[in-house]
Write a structure and sequence with these properties.
heterotrimer, A mainly alpha (116), B mainly alpha (312), C mainly alpha (557), A: 116 residues, mainly alpha, 4 helices, 64% helix, flat, B: 312 residues, Four Helix Bundle (Hemerythrin (Met), subunit A), 2 domains, 10 helices, elongated
């Protein structure tokens, strides 16, 4: 069967079981702890002098980085088949659709050419 | 398997291989894809709440900032760290399950569960605090204090380690806590009052959004703060806070249930280099719950925190 | 379980072990992991819900026979149409084809022994039962009157009916859909037999792949939305109440983010069945296989981008309405691709008018009307006139009943010999199909006209000048009711007295016709290896037509 359909393979047979090993896991952990501390202290600073909403952007940027690290290494997405990538990325894409098409309503209420 | 027991068309080549699969590779791929699709649906499940958050925050940014500033960001951050540690122990559990090291697995699962319980403990402490300060967005679910109660009750139950949360009550001249029917209460209008004043002084400034100018004012466009209307918006923040963190906590509790089962299986020495996918799948779930919190923490606790620089 | 007993009582000569006689205790059914047995249990449950929803429909049509609201009080009428909608949408239309026919056929069609996650499959059946039981309990306690859409703030603040309980029932039921979707996606990806490449998959499987995507990505959103409604009813915070700073339109966005794609859940599987019926009964390879396959995926994806067309008059911004209106026109394209390809498939085919094919052809006509009236409603200007009129009711019944129910019946007739090993009466099958077609059009075409003339939906009373068309509609509903009841009788009759079905009664090349009727528990005696192209009616299919004909003759003798 395996030679007929290419998807029938075991990801754990082809790649070494170690993934990134214990030092790697500890490194990821360090990144996550640093990110948490960083996001806490940056939130207390007033970054509005850069542009309004800079605090939000930084906080979300750090959160996305942390999520990516957890996903890639702790959840082994880095070594997973393409389908796993697709379901992870696809779900986020769908979430973006929901955000974008909902906000396209709220952000254009009562403004612009079609305002009233 | 009972329905198939008298069918002899298949043979168990390996222990743990279910009859519908040809080999362990196919089984593991199916199970892992199934788990990831389940997580995809979880993303959309929480995504609905994130959409509600996004819409409501974009409508009432100042009310959300005021609400955020009232949460204890230090405890929220501590909880983030607790979850990250539990994620590390979970990742190591999978690592040792692959190696078939039973003792390390059992130890690490116990650690993971301890950190999960710590998280829930801190969460419960925070909820208690909201209860004491009249911040639960449902009438009757807050601590009831009558106006003629003894003075000690008006201060609120001071829990050990309680800090900035009760800042308003520590201020000289602050009104005592009176809440005979256990309703939602809000007392901090300094931030919105400050912005309202600035907006009145500079009508073309961007201190309040157009929607806020309409909805926080006594009458549309008057730019005179209506405290009741502002309180309603803060209550929506706390509603979203409770639903999001509550649903997250529910996922943690389910996770602890899974961990208990996993602990028993690992204790029996079920998992080895050939068969460890239950550990891996439980790990995926646990990490996912961690990721949800990674977003909840900044969105609920941190955004708007920089207004504290105004020194109000 | 009476059905099951009947099947066994009528067992015929060959004592071959199949999924139906492989264990006959109640436990062997309730704890089975066999996708075929689970499908049969779904069939019984779904039919029960269809019957209940149908009774509510009859009540609605009876009330609308006269202009005055004389059969029900207006409040009761609100409950009647709401409960008709809830039972039909959430407990019949959504699970009907995927959970019954999809569950039964997908593993067989791809040459697998079972779904990839059989225990999850059984779990989803139980979740469906629990959700259904809670909803039925709430309906018996007094019901709900919000309309199946639960629009806020009426549902959260003003309605004093059992919104909370029904909401919880639908919330739970949603997870049944999600788990079914996950199971199908995994199965189609990992369980295909050797040689069963993606472009050899029957189009029925492709459409279920698309539906499963919607199940997984859409259903959780409506679950969380109903959860918010439920909490809001208890807590009265006002997140959906404008008087307290909330936003009722937020509910509509979240609700329609799922519920518009859900409309495609309710028609895509039907399209899959019709693709099978038209190609197989015209005995011709479907025209433009790849286009039909990818248009299913296209519908699933674009279906997520058009939900705002339900909100043109709700206070959504004009810009958003424009975008949603445009995208609504875009989603018509993949549907049109399917229609054109089906038509081209029929061209020069050797068509046989067996009962399933009658349903297939009926689908094409009815879905055409349903689709075109949808374009009227998606057009931003015209929709303002048509919103909340009987035109909308006519439109979506043409898609839901004319599409999904017709296709479901077609599929049920088509695969009935395979599922039960019995042939039904072809004569009564054709009579029922014709009655349903006539009755359906007589019921719903007048509603399109009524709506265009301005008769609003959801009212028990209406101006007297609308009465003639309403009488037509009610008369049609009676014919439709008779037509829909007939299959119940001749199907049950076939279980007891029906002729045994040959393995391949229609002489077709599909994988499901290459196993016995009914199939064994493991679906195939020897694991199949696919060497032929799908819808190949020539010699290359490796199908011994003469042998199949001989077998059919022996069985009939």
């Amino acid at each position: 069967m395996a030679e007929q359909t290419t998807e029938h393979h075991n990801p754990h047979v082809e790649v070494p079981n170690e993934h990134i090993g214990i030092p790697g896991y500890l490194g990821v952990f360090a990144v996550l702890v640093l990110g948490t501390i960083l996001t806490y202290y940056v939130a207390l600073m007033d970054l509005d002098w850069i542009f309004p909403g800079a605090n939000t952007l930084v906080a979300l940027g750090i959160a996305f980085t942390k999520m990516t690290v957890v996903g890639l290494f702790f959840m082994h997405v880095r070594w997973s088949p393409r389908l796993v990538w697709m379901s992870a990325v696809g779900a986020f894409f769908w979430l973006t659709i929901m955000f974008a098409y909902t906000m396209q309503d709220y952000l254009t209420r009562g403004t612009g050419f079609f305002g009233h | 398997m009972s329905a198939h027991s008298h069918s002899d068309k298949f043979v168990y080549h390996e222990p743990g291989l279910q009859h519908q699969f040809d080999d362990m590779g196919q089984q593991e791929e199916s199970v892992s894809l199934g788990m990831w699709l389940f997580l995809a649906q979880e993303i959309m499940f929480f995504g609905g709440l994130f959409t509600a958050y996004l819409v409501m925050r974009s409508k009432y940014p100042l009310a959300f900032a005021s609400g955020s500033n009232h949460l204890d960001a230090f405890l929220g951050g501590a909880n983030t760290l607790v979850l990250i540690v539990s994620s590390l122990t979970m990742a190591l559990t999978v690592y040792y399950a692959q190696k078939g090291n039973r003792n390390m697995q059992v130890g690490l699962i116990v650690l993971t569960m301890l950190f999960g319980l710590t998280f829930l403990g801190i969460k419960a402490y925070e909820y208690t605090d909201k209860y004491n300060h009249g911040l639960v967005p449902m009438a009757g679910l807050n601590r009831r204090v009558k106006a003629d109660s003894p003075a000690s009750e008006h201060v609120g139950l001071v829990l050990p380690g309680e800090t900035a949360v009760s800042a308003s009550e520590a201020k000289p001249g602050a009104e005592p806590y009176v809440n005979p029917h256990g309703e939602f209460q809000w007392r901090e209008y300094e931030l919105v009052q400050h912005m309202m004043d600035k907006q009145r002084a500079e009508p073309n400034g961007h201190y309040l959004t157009l929607n806020e100018q309409l909805t926080y004012s006594t009458s549309p466009g008057s730019l005179v703060l209506d405290k009741d209307k502002f309180r309603d918006k803060v209550r929506i923040f706390f509603y979203i806070y409770f639903v999001m963190t509550g649903l997250h906590a529910l996922h943690m509790i389910i996770g602890l249930g899974i961990m208990t089962w996993l602990l028993w299986m690992a204790f029996k020495g079920t998992f080895n280099a050939e068969y460890f996918s239950p550990v891996e799948m439980s790990g995926l779930y646990w990490h996912f719950v961690d990721i949800v919190w990674i977003f909840l923490f900044p969105l609920l606790y941190l955004l708007g925190r920089h207004y504290e620089h105004l020194g109000l | 379980m009476e059905t099951v007993g009947a099947i066994e009582a009528g067992s015929y000569g060959t004592a071959k072990l199949n999924y139906l006689n492989n264990g006959s205790t109640l436990k062997s059914w309730l704890l089975t992991k066999d996708h075929k047995r689970i499908a049969i249990m779904y069939l019984i449950s779904v039919s029960a819900f269809f019957l209940m929803g149908g009774l509510y429909a009859a009540a609605i049509r009876l009330e609308l026979l006269t202009p005055a609201s004389d059969l029900f009080e207006t409040g009761t009428y609100n409950k009647v149409f709401t409960q008709h909608g809830i039972l039909m949408v959430f407990f019949f239309l959504i699970p009907s084809i995927p959970a019954v026919l999809g569950n039964f056929l997908i593993p067989i069609m791809i040459g697998a022994k079972d779904l990839a996650l059989p225990r999850i499959n059984l779990l989803s059946l139980y979740i469906y039962w629990v959700g259904g039981a809670i909803t039925l309990w709430a309906l018996m306690q007094g019901g709900v009157d919000t309309g199946w859409t639960f629009y806020t703030p009426y549902s959260t603040t003003f309605s004093n009916t059992y919104v909370l309980a029904v909401g919880v029932g639908i919330f739970i039921n949603g997870f049944s859909s999600i788990l079914t979707g996950v199971n199908f996606l995994v199965t189609i990806h990992t369980m295909r037999a050797p040689g069963m490449t993606w472009f050899r998959l029957p189009l029925f499987v492709w459409s279920h792949y698309a539906v499963s995507l919607i199940f997984v990505l859409g259903t959780p959103v409506v679950a969380i939305t109903l959860l918010l409604v439920a909490i809001e009813r208890v807590a009265h915070v006002g997140i959906f109440d404008p008087a307290l700073g909330g936003d009722p339109i937020l509910f509509q966005h979240m609700f329609w983010f799922y519920s518009h794609p859900a409309v495609y859940i309710m028609v895509l599987p039907g399209m899959g069945i019709v693709s099978e019926l038209l190609a197989n009964f015209a005995r011709k390879r479907i025209f433009g296989y790849e286009f039909v396959a990818f248009s299913s995926i296209g519908i699933a994806v674009f279906g997520f981008l058009v939900w705002g067309h339900h909100m043109f008059v709700s206070g959504q911004s004009m810009y958003a309405s424009l975008v949603f209106s445009f995208l609504t026109m875009v989603v018509a394209i993949p549907s049109a691709i399917k229609m054109f390809n089906w038509t081209a498939t029929l061209y020069q085919g050797s068509i046989s008018f067996d009962t399933p094919m009658l349903y297939g052809l009926a689908f094409m006509g009815l879905f055409l009307i349903g689709g075109f009236t949808g374009l009227y409603l998606g057009a931003l200007g015209l929709d303002v006139h048509l919103t909340d009129t009987y035109f909308v009711i006519g439109h979506f019944h043409y898609v839901m009943v004319g599409g999904q129910v017709i296709a479901y019946l077609g599929g049920l007739h088509y695969w009935w010999p395979k599922m039960t090993g019995k042939m039904y009466s072809e004569f009564w099958g054709r009579v029922a199909a014709m009655l349903i077609f006539v009755g359906f059009n007589l019921t719903f075409f007048p509603q399109l006209i009524l709506g265009y003339l301005g008769m609003p939906r959801r009212y028990a009373a209406y101006p007297p000048e609308f009465q003639v068309l309403n009488i037509f509609s009610t008369a049609g509903a009676s014919v439709l009711g008779v037509g829909l009841t007939m299959p119940l009788f001749y199907f049950l009759h076939s279980l007891v007295k029906g002729k045994p079905a040959p393995d391949n009664p229609w002489l077709l090349p599909g994988l499901e016709w290459r196993t016995s009727s009914p199939p064994p528990t493991e679906n195939f005696d020897t694991p199949p290896v696919v060497t032929w192209e799908i819808y190949d009616f020539g010699d290359e299919s490796g199908l011994d037509l003469e042998a199949a004909k001989r077998e059919a003759a022996t069985v009939n003798a």
